[in-house]
Records
---
Amino acid sequence: MTQPLQVVLAGRIGNTGSYDMGMRLWKMAPNPADLMVIDGAGHYEMYDVPEYVDAAVARLADFYADNL
């Protein structure tokens, strides 16, 4: 993988496995990788709780502005 990587994870670890897989992906990234862990959020809340969605979108917008 040659592209920069942005990983956004819910901070509350649940049973989806997404936190563990996201951390593995981030640790294995060979190029610039940005990690954002949203404290208090669960996996499914990342889809529809405005404070979590807004935080992720703001970070992604900055990441895209810097890397696209």
---
Amino acid sequence: MSKSEVVELPVLDAGAAVPCCPPIAAGELSQADAEKMAAMFKALSDPVRLRLFSKVTSYAGGEACVCDISDVGVSQPTVSHHLKKLREAGLLTSERRGTWVYYQVAPSVVAAMSAMLDLRT
């Protein structure tokens, strides 16, 4: 059972997200930009991580307690490992509240990934 409370999260301005990299059609990526984006896409290339990312993204309130994420076909320690990898890639942020860790999607990072894949120049 989770000990959750409603927390009002700030709403990001759509123009506030600054892509880390230019759109893929704008020109060749620099080595640094390619490495940064590859790490994010690599983190999402694992099916368990992609499911976890989806669960956190779609969870009510935009955040999920690690205690509420369990049905992805792996043990809880493995869930924690994959959440850590997503956090290290910059796709999730986390906050410890008592004994539980709550995860949120990093909207600016997801917006940057989306902008990079935009084929319109």
---
Amino acid sequence: MTTRRTRPAPRPPEGTPPRAELARQARAVLADAVRIAHWAAGTPGPGAAAPLAAHALERAATALELSPAQVRAGWDRARLAGLVELHGDTARPGWRLRAWDRDDSAVLRGWVALFDAWSLVHAAPEGIEAGAVAEAVEAVPQVLSLLQLSAGSVTVPALLDLLGQRVAELQEERCEVPLGPGRSAPAASAAPAETAADQAATAGPARSADLNALLLDWALEGLAAVGALTLGKGHATLTPLGNWAVWVKLEQICVAAQSPAGNIEQSAADMLLGCARLTPGPARDEYRAWLAARTVGSAVAELLAVARGEDALLRGLAFEALRVVGAPAEPEVRAVLAEPSLRPYALLWLAEYEGYDPDDAQDVLSREEATWLWVDTAAAVADHGETGLLVRHLDSAVQGTVPALLDEVRAVGHPRTVQVLVALAAAHPDPALAKAVRRAAFQVHTGGA
């Protein structure tokens, strides 16, 4: 047996307000979004769908005494912060809205979700290539780190220098060659309406600094719009909320960047397979370490790609890793609810994320979804587990009897149904039950009743 030293819980930097005060500030930032979320959730009919229809926008502006622009901005924030959920054309209150006045953790998680989505809150300048915008977004964490470590205001030129360095590193990692000064400029008559961004794309390295400056201004304005920093004349300063959020993210990286089992450099599939026989605690350590070495967006996308594969064990483990991601994964997890193979896992993930006890989370599944998940889990056991475990898996079915289970398993349409039933029949010690299971497998295979 090996022992590991435990690390004491880290303390936020000196001067960080208590959580109750941070939550108060977060409530202030999202005050309009909360009002609009309450209005939308209480409005019958399809008028609260996104984007807000013109008549709904006018009704909301009148009812809340806000301008249409304020309503539209507050609506976007409410959605990004998880205060409302869209179900078709109907807006329903999210769990955070229900907990808003009593749960400081829910408030802070909602604000962090908005903070993570700053690039959606404040639209990028028109005419800039999507790749340049993406590079700026990817470079912003370094800008925020400098602001946090400086414990005060930082001049815009210093931030611009750092942004330029990070963008250059990203381009070098992708083996991109910047346009050289020898490239001929287009004739003036060819593009009379040329934007600043178009010029930046054609004028080589001398213009790249101007493009970076434009993108930095956009990023700082976006972060200020969500309450993460304040802008002064030629300098920027993190707010207490922004300082706390950046410290939390840096601390998570420092804690998680050590991979006890050495899976950091592995693909998601190989990492999950390497964690398959670990107990939950060490497995979560591995997930954190693997996640810390990647951007959240790329890590979530890779985990969901693995979950869409044929290996049911990796599907379940991918959602375990997504539980470690937490709030930043919520939009992507909600987006896969329409995929039948991922829907049961996504529903359970969202239920636990919204505060359900894991033992009660199964209640959110329909009978068909629970049956599909039973077959998928049985497939994972059949592929990777022991014979006795597959037999014991029968006890976890929602159906009260084996005949009822077989009827519903046949109807649910899981692609691994035949293999699961054949493996179960081979493993079960009761000859009569094994015969019934084999018959069910044959009926599914031949399409019989």
---
Amino acid sequence: MTSTTAFWLAGRQATGETTFDVTSPWDGRTVGTVSVPTDAQIEDAVSAAHAVREDFAATPAHVRAAALDHVSRRLVERTEEIARLISAENGKPVKWARGEVGRAVSVFRFAAEEARRFNGGEAQRLDTDAGGQGRLAFTRRFPKGVVLGIAPFNFPLNLCAHKIAPAIAAGAPIILKPAPATPLSGLILGELLAETELPAGAWSILPVPNDRMPALVQDERLPVISFTGSETVGYAIMDSVPRKHCTLELGGNGAAVVLADFASDEDLDRAAQRIATFSNYQGGQSCISVQRVIADASVYDRLLPRIVAAVEAQVTGDPNDDATDVGPLVSEAAAQRVESWVDEAVGAGAKLLTGGKRDGASYAPTVLTDVPAEATISCEEVFGPVLTVRKVDGEAEAFAAVNDSKYGLQAGVFTHDLGTAFRAHRALEVGGVVIGDVPSYRADQMPYGGAKQSGVGREGVKFAMDDYTYQRVMVLTGLAL
């Protein structure tokens, strides 16, 4: 029998009056049973966070850094155990789950480093005008208040880390709501944080059902909301609390552009392999997975069969097997949605070159061409192992095709030309341009986020800390400068 996993209320374990089961999307087995906090317990967590906010902001940097370092080390020690847990509750192939744990290790390490150097203050002389003679401005950053972090299912450990670690580093209390489908990985972070000396109330991890989220969102004691998830939910949150500070990391339909100078056999083999891998990794359930391939006409006919072959070489199956590249989606309903979008596109005239088959929660890696511009799969984020390939004539048309989207998260441009790289950086309406690779590259310390309907604000430890804090200036008077 599976034991019940407690949640974390103001740094201590607690159990509620009801539970829910977490099941594997691969085989339907029960991975864990999780206790659900009551309304009174949620109130206790919010009250504790609100009460400790000033003391936590004043906590010495070495205390916060030591706690973050501890979590980073413990993640290393428990890598295989946690990777297997991620794979079990999410369906992610275990080799990708190990990579996710490694990234979380880095996030907490980066946060520890930032905690030690963040907010050292900046001095600015004011005697550049006569009225400022004898005055000096000194500016530091202070937390805006308690952070409500809402994490998604696709990276159930690392995206929880991206909420928790920057908040602790900045001295902002945080209440984390993990995704209901994948709460166990986030709750593991509670185990590790409980081993530290952070003050009670500095953090809580509450597996709250989605239908009880609005009350947390509306609570005035939680002035900062950091959300990663769908465009629909993210903007609904922002619209419901227009006076709160919201950071939203939302959807994308990442484009990989292959230009005319990327034309050798070696170049095209590499592009095809990277495109195939990163349209299907995590089952395509990544905001920056490759969904659209935009190829110059001069390389299209040689690139397309390479992409199809590389996609067909992806190993699908049991996520517990180290050889598996592509596992199931998070649920059968998710796979059914992907199936319906592909069927719609094919019915409207798209050509299916490979894939297009569903088995329960699994969907075969799929390649489409000649997809109508109005098809759902052209306009929305598929969040599944499907890519479309399009032929264009020249750089300008390629960049226009990338921008012909309501989303703007990241784009990849396969080129060797430095001038083209800088033109892409200027022209593409996205949060990140990756030259010589797919859009799916992300370093956890860099600013990460989108333009247009891909969200507002930036993740990446230091940049999230900036979002969680505000500048406060002190003017010193009567100084001999």
